[in-house]
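Fold this complex.
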Amino acid sequence: MAQAEAIKTPDPSPSPQSLGNERKWTHFFTFSTDHKVIGIQYLVTSFVFYLIGGGLATVIRTELATPAPDFITPETYNGVLTLHGTIMLFLWIVPAGAGLANYLIPLMIGAKDMAFPRINAIAFWMIPPSGIMLVASFFFEPPQAGWTSYPPLSLSSGMLGQGIWILSILIGGTASILGALNFLVTILKMRVPSMPLLKMPLFCWAMIATSLLILISTPVLAGALILLMFDLVAGTAFFNPTGGGDPVVYQHMFWFYSHPAVYIFVLPLFGAISDVLPVHARKPIFGYRAIAYSSLVISFLGLIVWAHHMFTSGTPPWLRMFFMITTMAIAVPTGIKVFGWTATLWRGKIAYTSAMLFAIGFIAIFVIGGISGVMLAAVPFDIHVHDTYFVVAHFHYVLFGASIFGIYMALYHWFPKMTGRMLNEFWGKVHFVLTFVGMNLTFMPMHQLGLQGMNRRIALYDPQFTDLNVLATIGAYLMAVSTVPFIINAVWSWHWGEKAPTNPWRALTLEWQTLSPPAHENFEGVPEIKTGPYDYGLGYIPVKDDPEIYEEAIAAVAAHAH
Amino acid sequence: MNGIPTSIVTMLIGIVITLISLWYGQNHGLMPVAASTEAGEVDQLFNLMMTIGTGLFLIVEGTLIVAVIRFRRKEGDETDGPHIEGNIPLEIVWTAIPAIIVLGLSVYSFEIYTEMGGLNLMEHHSSKEVQLAYASSDGDATSSYPMLAASGLGEPPTLGESADDTISIDVLGLQFAFVMTYPATGIVDGAVHVPVDKFVKLNLKAQDVIHAFWLPEFRIKQDMIPGKETSLVFKATREGTYPVVCAELCGSYHGGMRTQLIVHSPEEYDEWEQSRIVAQGPTDLSNAIAAASQKPDETDTEYLAHFRASMHLDIEPMEPMNHDAHMDLALTP
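Structure:
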C-alpha cells in the first residue's frame, strides 16, 4: 500500500521502483525495432533537417532583402532554393509525419508494436543517409534545378549534384513506401478486437488515406527519377528534347507523385488536429464520419489533380479544363474538415494550451491557403500567377500553416507521452505568438508580390518590389528566432521538466491509458476500451494519473524478474 | 443574450460580411494595370473570387475568434462541454454550398478561358506545321495528334474574319534572353513591339531549357518548351512599356531574363517598322542568337548590372527610343 501511495503523488526525484518504461539515451542512437524509439528517431532527425532547411530559407530571405544579387551568387542561390525545397519536403515534413504515425498508431489502436518492426527500422535508417547525401551535395556541386528538377535544365546544370539529388530522393522514397505499407497493415490488422474502424481515432483514418497515396504515387516518382538518371548519366533521351525526348512527360510523372505528396504532407496533420481539438475543447469531434471519409475522398481526388501544376506548360486545352474541375472539387472535402473543426470548438470549453493555440493557428492559416488554392485552380487566373510569389505564398500557407503548425501542435500535445515530461507552457505560448506573427509577416506580402509581377526562384528582382520583400525578410528572421524558445524548451523539459502524469490532458484515446512514456510493449495485456475516442460530455472523465497503471506496471516488472 | 433575437444578429452580420466582401472584391488594388482585353477578363474572374474568398475568410476567422473568446475554459472548470457529435443537415449545407461555389467558378472560368481563346488551339493548330527545334517534324508523333500537341492560347472566338490581320511574331527563348523575329518583315529585336488594339500572335520556342513568357500586365503566360511550339494571342489596349518576364527557372541568371513589350500607337508602330527595315534590313537570326547567348568578357557583377538597369521599368507611355537601345536590352547583355 505504501508503494501505491507513493505513486499517487508523483515524485520528481527518480523513483527507485522500476516501471519498465525507462530508456537509456543510447537506445535512440542504435538500431531499435520499438516503434516508440523509431518514432522519436524520425521526429528528432527530421527536426534537425528542418533547422538546416530553415537556415537555407533565412539565406534566401537575406538575399531577397535587396533587389540586387549581392549576398550570394545566383548559382549558389539556385542551389540554396533547391535544397531548401527538397529538405523541407522530403526530409522534414514527410519523415515528421511518419514519426508521428510510428509513435501514435500502435498506441492508439492498442497494439504492442507495428506489424513489421524490422521493416520499420530499415525505413527509418534510410533517412539519415538520404539526408546526409543531399546536404553533402551542397559542398561539391549543389543541384540547381529546383525541387522539381525539370529537364532539360536538370540535365544541364551539373551531373554530380543532380545525380546525388536523384539517389537521395530514391532512398527517401523507398523509406516512405516501406513506412506506408507498415502503417496500413498495422491499422487494418492490429487493432484491439473491440475497436471497429469507425471507433478509431481520426489520426488512424488520416494515415490510411496517406498510406494509400504513398503506395500508389511514390513508385511513379521513382520511375520518373530513374529515367531522369538514365538521361543524366547514360545519355538516353526519355525527357531530353535534344534526342527527341519529351520534357513534359517528366512533368506529368513528377506531379503524379508530387501533387498527392501535398496531401501526404498535410493529411497526417489533418488527422492529428482532429485528435487534439476535442481534448482541449472537451467536446466530441463534430461530424466524425464526415471527417473520416473526407480523408479518403481527398486521397482519391488528390490522385487526379496533378496537371494543375502544368496549366502553363505543354498541356492541351481540354486537359487544362479537366484538371481545373477536379482541383476545384477537392475544395469540398477539405472544406468539410475545416468547418467540422471550427464547429468542434463552438460551445466547447477551450483551454489555451500551447497545443490548442497551434491547432487554432493551423485552422486560421490553412483557411487562407485553401482560399488561394481554389483561386489557383481557375485556369485563366492561374495562367497569370503560375510560377510567381502568389504560388509561393499559397503553398507556404498550406505547408507551413498546416503541416508545420500541425507538427508543433502534435509535439506540444504528445510530448508528455513521448518523454514522460511536460513542456513549459509559457514558452510554448511565446513560441506560438512569434511563429504566428512571423509566418503571416513573411508570406502574406508574397500574395501581392506575385500578383504584381514578381516571379519565383529569382536572386534579383525589380526594385519596385523592395518594400514588400523587406517586410517578408523581417518576418523570416522572426520565424528563425521563434524556433529558439522551442528548442530550449524541448531540450530542457526532456531532462528537467515537470514529470508528466499518464494522462495530463484527460483524453479518451488509448495512448493515454498507459505509462508516460509507455513501457516496452505499450500495454499490459489487451487494453480495455472504456469509451469512444471522442465521447466527451457523457459523464466519463478520466483521471490525470491512474494509479492502477503504475501498479500493473510494477507487478509486470516484478513478474518479469522472476 | 441582450434582447436582440439571434436570427436578427445573424442576419445583420451576414449583411455586413456581404457588403465588406463586395466592396473589397472590387477595391483590393492587388493587380497591376490591365493593358489587354485578356487582362480585363482575368481581373473580372479574380474580383469575383476575391469577393467570395473575403466572405469565406471573414466567416471562418470570425467564427474562430468568437469561439475562442466566448467558449474559453473558466479557471478550475474540469467538466466537459456538451456532447454534440454532429448535425447532419448543417453538414449537408456546408458540403453543398462550397460544391455549388466551385462548380459555378469552374463554369465561369471555362467561359473566360474560351473568351481568351484558350479552346481555339484544337481547331487551328492542326493546319499549321509544328516546328521543332531539334527533332524533324516527320519523327514527331504529336504533330499528327493536335489534341495532344497544341498548348497556349489561341485566337479569341470573336476574332472571326479579321484573323488575317493578326501580327505574328516568333519568340525564341534562350539562356538568358528573348529574341523576337517578325516573319513578315524579317526584323529581329530584343524587345517586343506591337501596335495597340490589334491581335498579336506569339509563336514561342525555346532553344536550350524550358522558359516561360509572362506578361504580368496582360495576365498571360506560356511555357516555352524545347522541341515544341506553343502560342499566345493577345490584344493590347493601352499604350506603354511593360515588362516581359521569364517565369520558369532556367538557370543561374533566371532572375535577369527579362525584356520589354512596347505598345505603340498604329502610326508609331509603322514608323518603328519602317525605321528598322531601313536601318538594318533583315537580320540574320543565327547571328542574333549567337550574340544573345554569348556571355561577354565581363565579371558576373558587370554582367548583372545590365539586367538590373533594364529592370527599372515603368508603365508610362513610352517615349520614342533609339532602336539600338532596344537591342541593348537583350541581345547584348
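Chain A touches chain B through 103 residues (CB under 8 Å).
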